[in-house]
Specification:
The protein has four helices and seven strands; from the N terminus they run αβαββαββαββ. It has 129 residues and is an alpha+beta fold. It is globular, with a radius of gyration of 13 Å. It starts with a helix and ends with a strand.
């Protein structure tokens, strides 16, 4: 787990590309990105995630980072529960912001999502090595 956190921190801090901004069907965007990095996609009900929201993202050959400008934590939790079942880990930081992790054995990629102090939802995905 610590290795995943280090990889994610390096990805966010030293990522080779700048953020791209996007608006539209977030569920479709997320499914395309997950599949691109090797996620084992399971059927999920359409409309689980908001259709008309804005987000920014960056990606490289190892994974992607998405920052949604509003809190969609509960919608993501429901989305991933339907797709992969119970998460590999749920934790809270000192400010009680929950973090959910799905490991590679469950989803084919490492997925982590959480909220931050600004009310944004942050999603990380790292492909399997």
């Amino acid at each position: 787990m610590r290795i995943l956190m280090v990889v994610l921190l390096c990805f966010v801090t030293f990522g080779c590309c700048s953020f791209q901004e996007h608006t539209g069907d977030f569920q479709e965007f997320l499914l395309v990105q997950l599949e691109e990095y090797g996620a084992d996609l399971k059927p999920v009900q359409e409309g689980k995630l908001p259709l008309a929201i804005s987000w920014k993202y960056k990606k490289d050959e190892n994974g992607f980072l998405v920052i949604v400008e509003k809190n969609i934590y509960n919608e993501l939790k429901s989305f991933f529960l339907q797709m992969y079942g119970s998460p590999s880990m749920i934790s809270k930081n000192e400010k009680s912001y929950p973090t959910i992790v799905y490991d590679v054995r469950t989803s084919g990629v490492a997925i982590q999502f959480k909220n931050n102090e600004e009310g944004q939802t942050i999603i990380f995905c790292v492909k399997s090595l």
